[in-house]
Amino acid sequence: MEQLELALLGAVPALIAMAIVDRMDAKRPEPRSTLRRVVVAGAISALPVILVGELLKLIAPSSGYAAVLYMSFVLAALPEEAAKVGSMFLMAWRRPEFDERMDGIIYGAHAGLGFALVENVGYLLLIPGDLKEYLAMFVGRAVLAVPGHAIWGGVAGYYAARRRFDGRGIGWWGGLAIAVLMHGLYDTWVFGAPLAIAQGQQWLLYGVGGIPLVFYLGPATMILLGALLLRSLARRAVADDDRDEAVIHSWAHRHRYDPRHRRP
What we know:
- This protein has helices at 3-8, 11-24, 32-56, 64-93, 101-126, 131-166, 171-198, 213-255.
- With 264 residues, the protein is mainly alpha-helical.
- It has one domain (3-255).
């Protein structure tokens, strides 16, 4: 296969992840058209993020762990998570179908996966030098980075929606801060581990069959914990949404028109 065709396969993990996220909202699914708009906005937002990143590189530390932290939080986590939140706000937040707490998770995750789709294709197009390196990057990003983008976007969306519907909680800015922290810590390990190895921390390369399991243990643990957090938030959101729906149905039942109660 040609290099471009191999790179385009990088869209597959994001598309699969979208289907998994949709299953979380099977009880009251969102309109496909709105989901598509959010995904497209998330994908397009990757372009200005790249431009912003190039500008921020001009003032980046040159080396060491300061450079790792700057790359993780300033170049990657902050602009990327802000782009996802902005995509959800512009394409879904003010629409009537955004009427539940769970919607924040669903739209936030889809914005993240739209971003991840473009980012994945870009990485697979520009970085791998051979098929072995391509496969390693494809698998690593499919099971770590792509789910990560969905988790971070979904967490930010949940806290924004909770503030909207419950009038309490940390809201947009707090949700964005948590997403940036989770994303930044993930990238700090991914970018910092190679530096630590170069400085003699060879234990990071321990593994089986040439696979550095210790190297992958850090980011894999972060993604697993993030997935558990998102599942917990989703269960809470569904429970609260179910409660609200029951109250509305009960009110409607008590006040529905009954001809026996007509005035004479």
